[in-house]
Design a protein that fits this description.
The chain has 232 residues and is of the alpha/beta class. It contains six helices and eleven strands.
């Protein structure tokens, strides 16, 4: 099976300006994803999709390809990343005559993933009848237990009212948070559908300490703290 690693890194981060090339333990954030991709055995290319010349330079310095600049319409705050994935596939197929079975998407925001996490996703993708494999972590809160929303009159109600009386968190269905550690997605599925959950999806559970999703300065500081606790 032919895999291409795609790393998406636009230049206009609002939560943490310059996030994608900010240094974490001496390596720019995008370098963590590129280095993880370089450690994989079964990929053909490592592609970065970006609209930033500065990110292009850093990506190339760390060993990734940047065969195109991302169009402006796909580099806005509200641009769906699914369309960024589709754009990358279409570009490679049309311009490089590259036949791609699946994308391995490694978001820049999850630098603490391990190569084993990625390989577990690849193994599941190859062994099961799925269109996509995502990563999740066990959720610390559950919509089935003591989570509320306010109705139009301002009254607080349970998000999911139980059919039976539930008094302990341990008795509710187990739920998970989606993480940005890894996505493995069939290329034809991306071209012909509009989202992951239109297809058959399975997940790999990642420990929360490797699933940090850096969106703002607090997340970045947590990642620094977790790295400082690792054995040398």
């Amino acid at each position: 099976m032919k895999y291409v690693v795609l790393i998406c890194a636009r230049g206009g981060s609002k939560g943490l300006p310059g996030k994608n090339i900010r240094s974490l333990d001496g390596v720019p954030l995008i370098g963590w994803s590129i280095n993880a991709a370089k450690a994989l055995d079964n990929i053909s290319r490592i592609i970065v999709s970006t609209d930033s010349a500065e990110i292009v330079q850093v990506a190339k310095e760390h060993g990734a390809e940047v065969p195109f600049m991302r169009p402006d319409y796909l580099a806005q705050d509200n641009s769906p990343e699914w369309l960024v994935w589709r754009h990358a596939i279409n570009y490679l197929e049309e311009n490089d005559r590259e036949a791609i079975d699946a994308l391995i998407v490694l978001p820049v925001t999850a630098p603490l993933r391990s190569v084993g996490d990625i390989n577990a996703c690849i193994d599941l993708f190859e062994s099961e009848d799925v269109d996509s494999v995502i990563t999740v972590s066990e959720a610390s809160r559950s919509p089935y237990f003591n989570m509320i929303h306010n109705n139009k009159d301002g009254y607080s109600l349970l998000v999911i009212p139980p059919k039976d009386r539930i008094t302990r968190r341990q008795d509710v269905p187990k739920v998970y948070d989606m993480t940005t550690v890894t996505y493995v997605v069939n290329a034809d599925f991306i071209k012909n559908h509009d989202g992951i959950f239109e297809g058959r999806v399975k997940s790999v559970t990642i420990p929360r300490e490797r699933a940090i999703d850096i969106d703002n300065l607090m997340d970045f500081k947590i990642a620094e703290c977790l790295l400082s606790q690792k054995d040398p």
